[in-house]
Design a protein that fits this description.
Blueprint (H helix, E strand, L loop, with lengths): L10 H9 L3 H6 L4 H7 L3 H14 L5 H16 L4 H5 L6 H9 L2 H22 L1
Helix pairs in contact: 1-4, 1-8, 4-5, 4-8, 5-8
């Protein structure tokens, strides 16, 4: 199943679940959606950093992977912050509902998730 189709997971967990089988790790991302519940750093972005840490921290160059990821993600998505990606605060019920009604959620979120996954796959393939 496509990560963007998993309704029970937030954006962070969707990225994690694409690369990791550990339910504990996936559940650890539960509070990272909606920009860490603060409309701050995008959950797909933080999920990607968690994946890179898990996959590369022992044998890979985590710092180089981070730099590549950050540059590519911000180039393709436009920014790192949930509020800036969505244009509204998804942590506020009325603004979240407007985002859903306008189709911004899930469209922009799915774009961020798919972008994060694509970049990680490219980094890990090297």
């Amino acid at each position: 199943m496509s990560p963007t189709k998993q309704k029970r997971y937030n954006c962070n967990q969707k990225v994690l679940s694409h690369f990791c089988e550990s339910k504990d790790l996936i559940h650890a991302g539960a509070l990272f959606g909606s920009g860490m519940r603060l409309a701050s750093v995008c959950g797909a972005y933080t999920g990607a950093l968690m994946v890179l840490g898990v996959k590369l921290s022992e044998d890979g160059d985590v710092n180089s992977a981070y730099k590549i990821f950050d540059e590519e993600f911000t180039s393709r998505v436009g920014c790192r912050n949930c509020f800036d990606i969505l244009g509204k605060d998804a942590t506020k019920p009325d603004e979240r509902q407007a985002l859903i009604e306008e189709g911004i959620i899930p469209n922009r979120c799915n774009h961020a998730i798919e972008t994060a996954i694509d970049i990680i796959e490219n980094i890990l393939a090297k």
